[in-house]
Amino acid sequence: MTSIIISAIAVTISLLSLYVNRRKDRRDTFLKLHELLISPELQNGRRILFELYARGGRVEDLPPDDYTSVNRALAVFDAAGLYCHMKYVSEKDVLDLWAPSLTKVKYAAGDFLSHRDAFWPGIPTWAHYRRLADSAEERLRSRGVDIARFTAPAPSGAPTPASAPTPPSAA
């Protein structure tokens, strides 16, 4: 009887340890993903995309480095969508921080996504990103956010979310 109780306690401790480690791993993965999304390289890719959208530019006219920056920014959002789908990170947490950006990029990236889709007819590029962006927009709409401000291009010369000046820190 004692051995059964000890075994039950050991199994309980193992399950609790597994649960705690899984939460910690998900948190660490989320933090790494967030740090990647706020990296200057990915911010630059989103800024280029917003500027392209604002001026009504053509994807084909992007310099190769700019094309690569935009491509990488969208590819990382796709990885974020996959991480949410696979439950490596909490979709709620991702949307809490990134719903406005995902929604704005959804509209700014329309031409870029169409351009990429043309390479593989019938297979949408970055399906995980698209699902995550749709979820982000729905989340904002359900909270009464006016989506029109995310769908319209910024006036020429106006700061985009990725290029807006950062307020001085309170030092």
Kindly describe this structure.
This protein is an all-alpha fold and 171 residues long. The protein has seven helices and no strands. Helix 2 crosses helix 3, helix 2 runs parallel beside helix 4 (91-108) and helix 3 packs across helix 6 (127-142). The N and C termini lie far apart (63 Å).
Q: What is the secondary structure topology, with strand pairs?
A:
Layout: H1 2-37, H2 40-55, H3 64-85, H4 91-108, H5 110-117, H6 127-142, H7 148-151
Helix pairs in contact: 2-3, 2-4, 3-6, 4-6
Biggest β-sheet strands, sense, barrel: none
**Count of alpha and pi helical runs:** 7
> Strand share of the residues?
under 5%
What overall geometry do the principal axes of the alpha carbons give? Answer: elongated
- Summarize the helix and strand pattern as letters: HHHHHHH
Helix content: over 70%
Calculate the terminal CA-CA distance, rounded to whole Å: 63 Å
- Uncertain segments are 157-171
* Mean pLDDT metric: 88
Radius of gyration: 21 Å
Number of E-state strands:
0
Structural class, by secondary structure, is mainly alpha
